[in-house]
């Protein structure tokens, strides 16, 4: 079976459709051109690559706290997709329950956009997420995880780490932020997305300087807590990207079909509650 046909869950992707859902006025970045990915385009791309389920992440870019486009995509998927929403820190339990009933499984924290201090008052929100068995999906870079990890760990919430923790390749595996990401894996406190190499590699495809970090994550988390993501439609990408070459990279690094099945299918189905029958 080709890597393109193997059943997959894509655990980080976006739907952006400013023609149907206008961008918010106060966002710092407004995706345009080939960064736009409508619900119809998203469905077509997922189908083309054997992606049967998806975790659609509400982007800070374009929409901020407006989750209408995300919820529209979840509703149209008939349960095949689940979502990560972006919400204010004062979001209450009832609002979270309403989102959960519509397929949202967690909330995005993005210190790479807002900084760590932005989440200083988010402890009560994280505890509400823990009570509802929902995820904190956190995107950090460089040493940000070292600063925010104690709050995440103490919250009791289920934790997702975006894009390998976005280390700085030139600083090596021992940098404080990446060590904090690895510690969450060794403790069994988090699931990490092996994705977003273009966001932290200093080179172009095939991102040679990213792979020592990926291997360290595989060692610390194991394939029982690693999932794969495309990051489609590749917001702010420094070069043209496509899902096909990214899948070939996984095939090269994990030549065992059994290992790829764990990464692509078994682990994300178990972690996110998707049906695992193929």
Describe the structure.
The chain is an alpha/beta fold and 278 residues long. It has one domain: TIM Barrel, CATH 3.20.20. Helices cover 40% and strands 14% of the residues. It contains 12 helices and 8 strands. An 8-stranded parallel beta sheet has the order 1-2-3-4-5-6-7-8. Helix 8 links the parallel strand 6 and strand 7. The longest helix is centred in the last third of the chain and has 16 residues. The radius of gyration is 17 Å and the shape is globular.
Task: Looking at this protein, list some descriptive labels.
278 residues, alpha/beta, eight-stranded parallel sheet, TIM Barrel
Largest sheet descriptor: 8 strands, parallel
Anisotropy-based shape: globular
What structural class is derived from the secondary structure elements?
A: alpha/beta
Number of helices: 12
> CATH fold name, please?
TIM Barrel
The termini sit apart by 14 Å
Rg measurement, Å: 17 Å
Strand content: 5-15%
> Percent of residues in helical segments?
25-40%
Number of domains in the coordinates? Answer: 1
